[in-house]
Design a protein that fits this description.
about 120 residues, mainly alpha
Length: about 120
């Protein structure tokens, strides 16, 4: 009976470790979430559109681990360099969507400090 209990505990621990692995595996995961925000970040004003905020919320939920946050940061940094985004809108984006995002939406983000 003790071995069954020990096996159950071991299975729970293994499952919980597996579930804490990175969920953002590539830049395309980040881009998929933030794509609805591009036109707003380039030439928008006021509140971000609903689909943009949904993407920001999905990204915030996916960026759970330090590795996720660094991957997301590097992706946002490299992608935003190719766009002419409004830096004020970008910095305000998470707050305007009611989300706490531990990543700066900026081409100048210091991703080494994220995580």
């Amino acid at each position: 009976m003790k071995s069954v209990a020990a096996t159950c505990v071991l299975m729970i621990l293994v499952t919980s470790v597996t579930n804490s692995e990175a969920t953002i595996s590539s830049c395309s995961d980040v881009i998929k979430n933030l794509k609805p925000c591009v036109s707003y970040l380039v030439s928008g004003s006021g509140k971000p559109p609903g689909p943009c905020c949904s993407g920001v919320k999905a990204l915030a939920a996916a960026a759970a681990t330090s590795a996720d946050k660094k991957t997301a940061c590097n992706c946002i940094k490299s992608t935003s360099k190719s766009l002419n985004i409004n830096s004020q809108l970008a910095q305000a984006l998470p707050g305007n969507c009611g989300v706490s995002l531990p990543i700066t939406v900026s081409p100048n983000a210091d991703c080494s400090k994220v995580g």
